[in-house]
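Quick one, tokens below:
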């Protein structure tokens, strides 16, 4: 068994023991974040983040950026509020609190989707991005991961370039709405991470998308750590 696998096994055993307790099962996201963070800490977050990141950079970054402990619980509480705001402002968005961050997956009605071979943002997508930009301004101590995706039409190299253009288009639009560019990190996945069936026209349309991950920036982490020292 290699070192990483040993660490994952030990950390997961600790988390499994904790999450089996009634107190943790009945806890809210903030409380769970604090308990799990104390048990596994950044070791588990970093290892899982690195491995998940190979397949999904947004989710990998969310999991890999774990602070853990009570400070992680403080961050989790702030992320709870932002996640709830996104859910209320953009019905249909699948908003998942993961560790100390947020993973946002949109459906075809609430998200950012593109026509075949296109990277321009349509009017409906702009309306949703305007709402998101407003929320991001309310929570300036978070960073945003923007991931571009395509369907399986066309060759791999073309799709990778197209997904980069789509991620860039969303990032540029958020910047135009007042979001500081330093908060944004862009990844291009091409056709490598389909969420829907590329064998159907409907599935391909849904796969032409951009998804978002939201994580604490260094200021939020420092503030959380300072808060628990007081």
């Amino acid at each position: 068994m290699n070192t990483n696998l040993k660490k994952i096994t030990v950390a997961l055993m600790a988390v499994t023991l904790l999450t089996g307790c009634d107190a943790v099962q009945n806890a809210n996201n903030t409380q769970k974040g604090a308990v799990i963070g104390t048990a596994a800490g950044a070791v588990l977050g970093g290892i899982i983040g690195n491995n998940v990141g190979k397949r999904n950079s947004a989710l990998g970054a969310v999991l890999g950026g774990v602070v853990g402990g009570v400070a992680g619980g403080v961050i989790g509480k702030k992320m709870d509020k932002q996640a709830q705001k996104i859910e209320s402002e953009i019905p249909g968005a699948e908003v998942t609190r993961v560790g100390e961050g947020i993973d946002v997956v949109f459906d075809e009605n609430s998200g950012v989707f593109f026509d075949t071979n296109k990277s321009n943002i349509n009017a409906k997508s702009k309306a949703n991005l305007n709402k998101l930009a407003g929320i991001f301004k309310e929570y300036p101590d978070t960073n945003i991961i923007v991931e571009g995706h395509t369907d399986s039409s066309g060759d791999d190299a073309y799709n990778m370039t197209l997904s980069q253009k789509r991620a860039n288009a969303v990032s540029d639009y958020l910047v135009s709405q007042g979001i500081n560019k330093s908060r944004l990190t862009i990844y291009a996945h091409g056709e490598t991470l389909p969420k829907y069936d590329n064998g159907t026209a409907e599935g391909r349309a849904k796969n032409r998308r951009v998804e978002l991950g939201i994580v604490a920036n260094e200021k939020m982490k420092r503030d959380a750590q300072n808060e628990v020292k007081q």
